[in-house]
Amino acid sequence: MDALAHRTDAAVDFADRHIGPRGAETAHMLAQLGYESLDALVDAAVPATIRAEVPLDLPAPRSEPEVLAALRAIAAKNTVMTQMIGLGYSDTITPPVIRRNVLESPAWYTAYTPYQPEISQGRLEAMLNFQTMVADLTALPIANASLLDEATAVAEAALLMRRAVKGRPNGVIVLDAECLPQTIAVTLGRAQAMGVPVVVAELTDFLPAGLGGDDGVIGVVLQQPGRSGVVRDLRGIVAQAKAAGALVTIAADLLSLTLLTPPGELGADVAVGSTQRFGVPLFYGGPHAAYMAVRTGLERTLPGRLVGVSVDADGAPAYRLALQTREQHIRREKATSNICTAQALLAIVASMYAVYHGPDGLRAIADRVHDRADLLARELRGAGVAVEHDAFFDTVRTRVPGRARAVVAAAAERGINLWADDDDHVQVACDETTTPAHVLAVVLAFVAAGAAPDADPVAVTDGFGLAGHGTSIPDQHRMTDYLTHPVFHAHRSETAMLRYLRRLGDKDLALDRSMIPLGSCTMKLNATTEMEPISWPEFASIHPFAPREQAAGYTELIGDLTAWLAEITGYAAVSVQPNAGSQGEFAGLLAIRGFHRATAAPGAPARDVCLIPASAHGTNAASAALAGLRVVVVATDADGSVQLDDLVAKLATHGDRVAAIMITYPSTHGVYEEHVREVCALVHAAGGQVYIDGANLNALVGLARPGEFGGDVSHLNLHKTFCIPHGGGGPGVGPIAVGAHLIPYLPGDPLVAAPAAGQGTPVSAAPFGSAGILPISWAYVALMGADGLRRATETAVLGANYIASRLTEHYPVLYTGPNGLVAHECILDLRPITKATGVTAEDVSKRLMDYGFHAPTVSFPVSGTLMVEPTESEDLAEVDRFIDAMIAIRGEIDAVAAGRWPLADSPLRGAPHTAAALTADEWTKPYSREQAAYPIAALRADKYWPPVRRIDSAHGDRHLICSCPPIEAYEQ
Fold this sequence. Notes:
Layout: H1 2-18, H2 24-33, H3 38-45, H4 64-75, E1 82-83, H5 96-103, H6 106-109, H7 121-138, E2 142-143, H8 150-164, E3 172-176, H9 181-194, E4 198-201, E5 217-224, H10 235-243, E6 247-252, H11 263-266, E7 270-274, E8 290-294, E9 307-311, E10 317-321, H12 328-331, H13 344-382, E11 386-387, E12 395-399, H14 404-413, E13 416-417, E14 419-422, E15 425-429, H15 436-448, H16 457-462, H17 494-507, H18 528-531, H19 537-540, H20 552-569, E16 573-575, H21 581-599, E17 609-613, H22 618-626, E18 630-634, H23 644-654, E19 658-664, H24 676-685, E20 689-694, E21 713-716, E22 736-738, H25 774-807, E23 826-829, H26 831-837, H27 841-850, E24 857-858, E25 865-868, H28 876-897, H29 907-910, H30 915-918, H31 929-933, H32 953-958, H33 968-971
Parallel strand pairs: 1-13, 3-4, 3-5, 5-6, 6-7, 17-18, 17-19, 19-20, 20-21
Antiparallel strand pairs: 2-8, 7-8, 9-10, 11-12, 12-15, 14-15, 16-22, 21-22, 23-25, 24-25
Helix pairs in contact: 1-25, 2-25, 3-25, 4-20, 4-25, 5-13, 5-17, 7-13, 7-17, 8-9, 13-15, 14-15, 20-25, 21-22, 25-28
């Protein structure tokens, strides 16, 4: 009994550690609002029509030691093998200095996407290193700052080629049959949804005749090395494609490009691939950073984020996200893609792997990998095994008629996973971790399986490695230099690397330093206990295509988590395959589309209209367009809710063509809409489905279930509500939860190129997406339990209303819901202030940096406003510190209004202030240096110094530089 009591107390302790305000703090906040209890506040704020009828049925909360012990037991059910499967995934060695000081460091994993660049210079520099690394290795001048995985990167490249080739709307995209199987499956699914014709063809020296139809071939995707490991001379087929007016994409193994002719020198327009083997663990399929590089002229159609070099107010070089108008949250349905969450943290790991090893180190790793593969091929041939290709980099494909499964089984008995493409072929992929002992074990597995009937195991062992050294790379060696920038030569020692990482981290303002009050992004605590297990080998070293029985632990963990998420949301089933919220949206709309097609009456018009409120997230419209749906905008009322009259009118106009409505609940304006059930009922009556965007689920967990108040499908943001950290702009997980009728249309197996009728389209390269970070959310739910999760939601609502109440006399709150209350976030309206004084929301966001805060969300969903979300993790002291900063800034605004300072020479417009600017010999500002640096006394004890002054965004777009500038640029 005592032990049970201790266990319950310990579990409650974790909820208290996760939730900031407690006891007297909670009472103080409630008193400010005029409520006696959290229950009373929630009853007033949350409409009774949506409240859950029964509490969550989840396991009792566990203590942190209990959760870690449970995860150890689950992890132990995974079998860690030597992974020689390949297919785009390679085992690798994460340098410990990078693992501990990037992947496991809250300075890096709690950072937000660098939309406020002045306080993001460290991660921006790391991502610029990533872009430079990719541009150099691919020999293409412009690379982005990562995509989600290689398969979706190829799909994005196919759509890019379609956009770039004008006047040929029916042109065909040709996929090389040597592309990875998951790449083919994901690209075909994406293209089919948009009506883009794609053909998979065997490509050797020339394009097969008759592929193009009336508009011919507009794009070709090649894989180098191919899925079978083959290395081909691609010059001829590239030249032929270009002569036909087509663009060419090459999906390339980045490590192989230290040895092989790079795509840019072959004439490719686009190069894509994965950077996983640059120090990022296998993670059972993800998260991993993909890359895309393009030739000059395609930069404005490049999907994803692009780091560029601009200048700050003093003319010093400074980094920022360039060409942001390409992004979907700004351009909505005109965006180049719906890539929202990228893979910034993993891209940073990969870039630092290149920084640490440098060009010579990478070349040495590639040589060693190839030498192991060449040794394997020679030994297999010596044992009488047929090796299919003479030219390869790391993968050896063998022909073993009828013996493939036996060879794989024999290798597994020796602790090694191989890949049987069919009954007659086995592929063996070497990597950075492959040793001669592994090679010998593989050869002996072939012998034991009878694939080399004339070979004697003793003779094989005795003669191993005596055949001499060779190479299986054809005469197309790389001639150009790469990674010539000093950053790739300056940090060879661990001491130098450690200090470089520390210097970059110190430039940034992440959640480990202060509250990040971003509306719609839920920057909450990412507890160390939740984060710790992802680096364990039992989770980190599992190949996504390993036999399922070797991943029994992952199967259990994913089964638990999806069941818990289904219970929390009120849906029947959950898929964790989507590896970003944007991909969850896309997968959910594909499920709706598949359902309508399967259930349509003969001759009925296609349901191809997606209704989207004017206030919706920009990703909604982009996802709908990618799913082949037509966007019809529904007006919103003055309080931000869906305008019912306009919804009725749109349903009358498009009724039998309406596929779905996409709504966010609580609304994007931060309020609980009282008539959401009516909205759902109207759409259902018209035959449509209801998609409820789960971006704001942090205001619902434990209080209401979308699946119960009208939703058919929702995506969830595990990097928001369920504690996976943002990582500077990724990783994320965007699972979809669906009603029973949509289960058949959940994302399918990415190794199946053509899903059967009634099976969903894969949206990610790996069956379970970014499985490697799912232990974080599993731990969060296990630690909190039903009561803890509900209290977290209630406290998030409390914090937002407390801020709204204290700030409304200084900055009007734009929208409120029932009883004048907001949900978990509030919008501060600066438009009247701007009209009266000229001070903008951007000015306030930059001045907050001097106070040691990241800005709230700026100008979304309403231009000229700030959207604030405190989350449940911030205690009263931190929330009050933010409020005090905002009130002090309002005082500075009033000083501008009173004429004390001209706006152009005010601390608001001069912000942020760097130490260098404040210690200059001459100070000509009408406000003091003290006012600039220490506007409130508390800053003297704990001051964050922005590393650059306000950045000139227009300059960076006019003079696009998206790779590391020469060191002389900084000296100037």
